[in-house]
Design brief:
The complex is a heterodimer of chains A (about 120) and B (about 120).
Chain A: E1 5-7, E2 10-13, E3 19-24, E4 31-37, E5 43-50, E6 53-57, E7 65-68, E8 75-79, E9 88-95, E10 105-106, E11 110-114
Parallel strand pairs in A: 2-11
Antiparallel strand pairs in A: 1-3, 3-8, 4-5, 4-9, 5-6, 7-8, 9-10, 9-11
Chain B: E1 4-5, E2 11-14, E3 19-25, E4 32-38, E5 45-50, E6 54-58, E7 61-66, E8 71-76, E9 85-92, E10 103-105, E11 109-114
Parallel strand pairs in B: 2-11
Antiparallel strand pairs in B: 1-3, 3-8, 4-5, 4-9, 6-7, 7-8, 9-10, 9-11
Classes of the chains: A mainly beta (about 120), B mainly beta (about 120).
């Protein structure tokens, strides 16, 4: 069964450094998402991406965050100057069509630890 | 502010029993509803999706939706110890374009199935 893949599985970074989290969505999917989950808290939406542009973003997704689809397969989340509170699990998800009824399938996540 | 509410649990049931998980949501215009299972330290795994009022069955799982009451539930029949996990209710949010928006998650209900 096709799946969303994320790398790395764990990233440790010094505060203030830039970090790039990578995702390969399911190949025929058109919508891509980033979510995060701080330890013990709910999964929170960050951003959605469709047709090479941001479709929607949350209040969390401020100027230190950016997303990119640099080629036909990868989808990346960049955090420019990391803060301690950015420590969380970051999940990439994708869905097949531009249709609210399409389920989103999640990758295994990247655990980001900011020191 | 769109909200999804779940009892955090833990909900403890004996092996073989029916586990009943509940969820309410605030946005009356919501159209798509999902149940995800999340094992500790892992990513959300889609179990069920439901879009219209009534019941939807898939194996041991039954999702129930009542849009008038803004209520979604998940029943797990013949519960197994391997069902022990946190169950996340997620509601699809339509964006202004009418296309797929983000998922709004509840905090999850922790289910423990005792052998």
């Amino acid at each position: 069964e096709p799946e969303v893949t994320q790398t790395p599985s764990h990233q440790v970074t010094q505060m203030g450094q830039e970090v790039i989290l990578r995702c390969v969505p399911i190949s025929n999917h058109l919508y891509f998402y980033w979510y995060r989950q701080i330890l013990g808290q709910k999964v929170e939406f960050l951003v959605s991406f469709y047709n090479n542009e941001i479709s929607e973003k949350s209040e969390i997704f401020d100027d230190q965050f950016s997303v990119e689809r640099p080629d036909g397969s990868n989808f990346t989340l960049k955090i420019r100057s990391t803060k301690l509170e950015d420590s969380a699990m970051y999940f990439c998800a994708s869905s097949a069509w531009a249709d609210s009824n399409q389920p989103q399938h999640f990758g295994d996540g990247t655990r980001l630890s900011i020191l | 502010q769109k909200e999804v509410e779940q009892n955090s649990g833990p909900l403890s049931v004996p092996e073989g029993a029916i586990a009943s998980l509940n969820c309410t949501y605030s946005d009356r215009g919501s159209q798509s509803f999902f149940w995800y299972r999340q094992y500790s330290g892992k990513s959300p795994e889609l179990i069920m999706s439901i879009y219209s009022n009534g019941d939807k069955e898939d194996g041991r799982f039954t999702a129930q939706l009542n849009k008038a009451s803004q209520y979604v539930s998940l029943l797990i029949r013949d519960s197994q110890p391997s069902d022990s996990a946190t169950y996340l209710c997620a509601v699809g949010s339509m964006n202004y374009g009418g296309s797929q928006g983000n998922l709004i998650f509840g905090k999850g209900t922790k289910l423990s199935v005792k052998p």
